[in-house]
Please model this.
Amino acid sequence: MINDKQPLINSLDKNCSAVILLKSVHMGSFSPRGISFVNLRVLTAMIHVQNVSKHFGDLVAVDNISFQLEKGDVLGFLGPNGAGKTTTMRIITGYMPPTKGKVHVADVDIFEDPLTAKSHIGYLPENPPLYEEMIVTDYLDFVADIKKVPINEKKGRIHYVMEKCGIFDVGKRIIGHLSKGYRQRIGIAQALINDPSVLVLDEPTNGLDPRQIIEIRKLIKGLSGDRTIILSTHILPEVTMICSKVVIINEGKIVLEESLKRLSQKASDVENILLKTKYQGDEVREKILSIPNVSDIRSGPTNELIIQPKKGVDIREEVSELVIQNKWGLLELHPVAHNLEEVFLKVISSAGN
Amino acid sequence: MNAVYPILKRELRSYFASPLAYVILVVFQSISALFFLLYLKGLLHLQFDPSFHLFRGELNLNNVVVIPYFDTMSIVLLFIIPLITMRSLADERTSHTAELLFTSPIKLRDIILGKYLAALILLIIMLFLSSLNIIVLTVHGNPDLGAVFSSYLGLLLLGASFLSIGIFASSLSSSQLVSAIIAFGILLVLWLIGASSDTESSILGYISLINHFENFGKGIIELKDLAYYFSMIYIGLFLTHVALDSERWR
Model:
């Protein structure tokens, strides 16, 4: 459990840290100091998942998962298909109980007091839960009723979510006649109708065209703030754009839990730079190697050079200056590959082994 | 605010947004009118048939038209009610709206009750329309109105029990067809179980749906019959609750 916003509390109780260490083992966290906050923040967490497992017969869909989110956190829930993302979300929203473990939403146990806990949650399932034969406004009115939105606020809320999700122009149309993009947006609208403090979105950009994807991402970004949001996806750039935290899950287990800031730091530690010049003599290689922060250099497949800088140092400026000074003719200079993607693949494949 | 009402309202709307409710109403109304005509015609024939003059005293509207009419209606309901209830819960699964309902801050009990009451209202509309036949009868003849009313009460209770069993069947499957077949199977077994025992006092005879309907046709409203139907309704809804609840625990 890592949170960079919080300062390290030095005066940790001795007993407390003992518990903490035990906990750090099964959570597989990267920083033992971050773990300490798990136990200290139990009371402020908006979502608190404790050792949750779910079995379907012999199949273990979710295996001993724990994590915790606070107000304002946006969690990207990553993992390959069938990793247990949807099952975890269904457990958090109270759709199904876990085989083992506990879930607290806004400090309420979702299975001891489901009505109170559920009133804090807005949930968009993988397939938006729409009644095809209804018109959009009637549908939102119905959802507002079953989500116990007070009657005097209902009209305003419906207006607000329709505006937020851009579905005003289809308000009087039958849901069954609308395109996938509109359906997805109506799905998000229904999740927002009770002004939830916890928003759970299962693949919110699934099946949308690129323009709609950008719109939905903007929308979700605009919704964060005071809300706690969990969204699952397998599109990695989405996480970089929207989320403040990442949990990667594979075969029902958490294989990585990190704040996005740290994750991208980690990723940029191994960031290489690709350089392509018109002039391709041996002196190029030699002169670049003489830059103090360059640790290695190798040739790429099409005569370009892949430069590996020392950890965490940006050498692009120095390299470009060198190229210009020597008039080698700069053609290309950019970082190589998408970082998060590399981390993701590395984490998933190493967990597989 | 109670969640039963919004569920009921949405359910009723969806019945009438699809052709299903209209088709069911039309089919039920046509069949009941047809049988009504047949029985009426039968009465006319029998009255002028000399071989029946010994039974002339028995040949009245009640015995020849009203009682057979309601008996037939009860069988027609047996076929039609699984079609009304088949979509009620099965459909929530196929349209993924079950996830919306079960993650909303409402009780499972309210969901089931809302759906049940919506189906019950459709049944009442059905029975109300079919009463046109009887109204015609009262204009031109004098049937025993007491027996007519008790028959309607019986038919309503019988239909209400069918509905509750139908909703239970609908909670078992995500396929409408499968749930209709399950409902029909359960109803038919409960119906025929009485035929296997002659006396009403045997257990099987008591469980049978049809045995409890006979009294209503004669104009007798007995507490044991009321208790039977109400417990039938309760059991059906209770089993639905258990089925939906346990499904998620699996």
